[in-house]
């Protein structure tokens, strides 16, 4: 492992990232309580949009739906070359929800887990589209049973 072979006189001085021009990203986390809590679902989504709102590149990652974060490649690919209209978002959300698995640290029903995964991917993609999602975030965070951030 490379990180174990560093010498005492070596130091990281720079990290260079490619251009983030045109990229938008968002993160949604569902948890049981509104205070600090581990997520029972998380969705990270990012897209690079062309001038007309057409998706050029996209990434969707689901957390807490399996034993490790899962890249929803098929869902992200379904966005390519398309605008984030209702039909495109619904298709991507359905594809992403297929990745949700039963996780031993939660008691959630499998059909509920897939449904809420689809809903949260929808929220994330709507936010990338430019929809004002503050009301949805407030509504979900104020709910007694679950909270979102």
What does this structure look like?
The protein has 149 residues and is an alpha+beta fold. The chain has a single domain (22-133), classed as Enolase-like, domain 1 (2-Layer Sandwich), CATH 3.30.390.50. It has helices spanning 73-77, 86-97, 110-129, 134-142, and strands spanning 23-31, 41-49, 55-63, 70-71, 147-148. A five-stranded antiparallel β-sheet has the order 4-3-2-1-5. β3 (55-63) and β4 form a beta hairpin. The longest helix is centred in the last third of the chain and has 20 residues, at 110-129. The protein is globular and about 50 Å long.
Report the average pLDDT across residues.
Answer: 86
- Give the distance, in angstroms, between the N- and C-terminal Cα atoms: 35 Å
Shape: globular
Provide the number of structural domains. 1
Can you tell me the residue ranges where pLDDT is under 50 for at least 5 consecutive residues?
none
| Largest sheet features | 5 strands, antiparallel
**Beta-strand content bin:** 15-25%
CATH architecture: 2-Layer Sandwich
CATH fold group: Enolase-like, domain 1
**In which order are the strands of the major sheet placed?**
4-3-2-1-5
Gyration radius over CA: 18 Å
Write the CATH homologous superfamily: CO dehydrogenase flavoprotein, C-terminal domain
- Give, in order, the helices and strands: EEEEHHHHE
Give the count of helical stretches. Answer: 4
CATH C-level name: Alpha Beta
The assigned structural class equals alpha+beta
Instruction: Work out the number of β strands.
Output: 5
Percentage of residues assigned to helices: 25-40%
């Amino acid at each position: 492992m490379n990180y174990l072979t560093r010498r005492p006189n070596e130091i990281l001085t720079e990290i260079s990232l490619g251009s983030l021009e045109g990229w938008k990203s968002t993160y949604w986390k569902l948890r049981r309580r509104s205070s600090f809590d581990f997520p029972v679902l998380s969705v990270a989504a990012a897209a690079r949009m062309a001038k007309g709102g057409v998706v050029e590149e996209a990434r969707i990652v689901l957390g807490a739906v399996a034993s490790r974060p899962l890249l929803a490649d098929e869902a992200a690919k379904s966005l390519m070359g398309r605008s984030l209209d209702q039909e495109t978002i619904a298709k991507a959300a359905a594809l992403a929800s297929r990745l949700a698995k039963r996780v031993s640290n939660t008691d959630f029903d499998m059909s509920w887990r897939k449904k809420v995964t689809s809903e949260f991917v929808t929220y994330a993609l709507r936010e990338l589209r430019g929809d004002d999602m503050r009301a949805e975030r407030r509504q979900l965070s104020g709910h007694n049973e679950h909270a979102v951030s």
